[in-house]
Amino acid sequence: MIIGWGGPGRGVGASARVGAVADNGDVSLYRDEGIVLRTQKLGEADRIITVLTRAHGRIRVVGKGVRRTSSRFGARLEPFMHVDLQLATGRTLDVVTQVETLDPFGRTICADYGSYTAGTAVLETAERLTAEEREPALQHYLLLLGALRALAHGEHDAGLVLDAFVLRGLSIAGFAPSFAECARCAADGPHRLFSVQAGGMVCTACRPPGTVVPSPEAVALLSALLTGDWPVADASDARARRDASGITAAFLQWHLERGLRSLQFVERRGDEQAESVARGTRGGGGVREEPSATSEVERLYREIGDAEVEQA
Ligand SMILES: [Zn+2]
């Protein structure tokens, strides 16, 4: 039996059979730790589980029999759970053979509505920012681990944790917003105008159409969330949080719709979602969306109300 990190046996042009053994008859096993992002039903009792792993990036694996009440590890393979996995390489999807719980984040996060809604948006954002399966994404993984730990332990306001996760996740993806110097010409700040398209604060000379004027408190909060300055973030008031959240949402939506797609980072599923968002924002005349087409991130941010930011 081969024990190793993603050893041989991943066939090309494989059959649709899930969890088949390698051609030589040996099952190739490997271990990794990860965080469960999402689960989908598969057949009678199985699930496809989307996991962001430490070493293998985002992967989809099969949990056999996990929907049976007698399943030994069904509850460990729920969203938010931080687990150590042993996986058997399959022809199409790898199969979970062992699960150990490292942190049962789901238990505490799901017990609090604010943490749950923010956490759900965090998981979805993590999936959309790691568009390529099996592309190592250690920084995204560590960021997600930190965010879920903060939510589970109630370390900070759940909305602040979500916004910090989004801003820092976009930075890891190569879209760091600029909250001090001008995002266009790098002139020293502070500047009063914010432009989603330009990528942050802009000077009056660079001012593109559609800028907003966030309060200095909101800009200070955004900067603190991006850099992880929690004493400043925790001390912010409700108005600054609302404005910062609206700007963060607009920034994320901009990149999910245009930036990520234009760089071809977005796989098919993300693309469809981005298009459904684009159709939705154009309003009227579009195809009527099923409720499932509205992502948790967009719904949550709509709830927060990104219209709160004063128009310049
Ligand atoms: Zn400028």
UniProtKB/TrEMBL annotation:
Keywords: DNA damage, DNA recombination, DNA repair. The keyword DNA repair applies. Residues 29-105 form the DNA replication/recombination mediator RecO N-terminal domain. The keyword DNA damage applies. GO terms for biological process: DNA recombination; double-strand break repair. One of its GO terms (cellular component) is bacterial nucleoid. Gene3D superfamilies: Nucleic acid-binding proteins (2.40.50.140), Recombination protein O, C-terminal domain (1.20.1440.120). Residues 271-298 are annotated as: Disordered. Pfam families: RecO_C, RecO_N. Residues 287-298 have a biased composition (Basic and acidic residues). InterPro entries: ARFGAP/RecO, DNA_rep/recomb_RecO_N, NA-bd_OB-fold, RecO, RecO_C. Signal peptide: none annotated. Involved in DNA repair and RecF pathway recombination. Belongs to the RecO family. PANTHER family: DNA REPAIR PROTEIN RECO (PTHR33991:SF1). This is DNA repair protein RecO. It comes from Phytoactinopolyspora halophila. The gene is recO.
